[in-house]
Amino acid sequence: MPNLSRREVGQRIATIRRTRRMTQAALARAAFLSLSTIRHIEQGSRSPSDDALDAIAAALTVDPSHIITGYTRTESRVHAALPALSAAIAAYDIPADSQPRPLADLDSAVAVLAQWRLGAQYARIAERAPQLLTDALAALHQATGADRLHAARILAAITRSADAVAYKFGARDLSARLIDLMRWAADQTEDRIAQATAAYVRTETFFAARAHVQGLAALETAIDASPSPIGRDTTAARGALHMRAAVIAGRTGDAAAAAGHLADARRLGDTLREAAYDGTQFGPDSVRAHEVSVAVSLGHDHLQQAFDVAEAWEPPEGMPAERQSGFWIELARAQVWAGRPDDAFESLKVARSIAPQHTREHPWARETAATIRRLKRADAESLTSFAEWIGAV
After folding, report:
1. Which of 4, 131, 185, 333 has its CA 20 to 30 A from that of 164?
2. 19 shares its domain with 78
């Protein structure tokens, strides 16, 4: 990158950071970069790598193309990494000769991957996950006793983050294989919370296949098998399953079952503070967001329920980016169905500003953008630009 371009990129980052009222130190923490790196990039003495640019953009809640015009490397980086993800799990049941990494090191990596997943930083996960999966499998096969249970939990968590990338970017066969591996690992943990989490994630395969009746049955079986909600983590595990069951019940058209599961999720969520429990966000705000998802899943006759929630509540800034953007994407879908394309476009723009990678790969966001453009074909250039960005043209 020429010197002038480096300066311009640094100035853009600094300007956006100041509008967010962030210090350089705060940006460094949010982007998982050193303060020195941020300073050199803003000064124009260093070009941001693709990885650093994605991290900075995610921390500033903008698309990387807002910093470097025309930047499209995120998608290509993810798709380039998918074969390595597939290869890493191809022989998951065959012990390798490689020296396993210490479990403490893998624990740290798991925590970072979970933060990236909740923050919708998929390119970073895609590039790190193949080696981490290889390392976790080596650790599992060579560990014994309590260390083997620990390694199994690590493998299940890494597989979950890898699946988030495969599922969001349309690699559904790979996603299904990763979920099967996650369930295999969870069964070896002897931990019912890990098994409940695997059941929660498995619902993606039912969504992808539109097998909603079967998915609801699987979740209700998992709820029955989940540990009693007598502590924080067990309460969150069961509450998350009810939350997910409410959405898939909505997609079956079973309003009564959806309402029942939402009520159970709300009851459990009200006893906890909003947080990530075993990698799954749960609490009162998550339940509110899922109330919109359920209303949209049930269809046109239930749209007012979604609007009632949105009028009284919106996701707080502290909620993970993926869940925040999901709320706005669902709301946009309801708004366009209700004949409110202008409101829907505003909701999609909010979703993009929060989690651009998640919004761009979300099929409902793309479908909604395409519908808005058909309804308002002669409207502002910004709509056409958005539709081109999301691939709706």
Report:
1. 333
2. no
pLDDT of residue 124: 83
Per-residue pLDDT reduced to its tens digit, 309-324: 999 999 998 898 889 9
Side chain identity at residue 364, one-letter code = W
Where b means 16+ CB within 10 Å and e means fewer, 19-29 reads: eeebebeebbe
The per-residue pLDDT for 174 is 96
- For residues 350-358, give the mean pLDDT: 83
Range of the structural domain that residue 116 is part of: 73-190
Tell me, yes or no, whether 198 lies in a domain: no
Same domain, 62 and 82: no
CATH number at residue 19: 1.10.260.40
Q: How far is CA 154 from CA 47, 113, 171, in A?
A: 34, 11, 23
Whether residue 249 sits in one domain with residue 358: no
Q: Can you tell me the distance from the alpha carbon of 243 to that of 187, in angstroms, rounded to the nearest whole number?
A: 22
Domain final position from 48, 71, 94: 71
Fill in the amino acid letter for 328. W
- Taking the whole predicted model, whether its pTM rises above 0.85 is answered as no
pLDDT tens track for 81-126: 999 999 999 999 998 877 889 999 999 999 999 988 888 788 889 9
Total number of domains in the chain:
4
Which tokens hold the place of 32?
């998982």
Quote the pLDDT of residue 377. 63
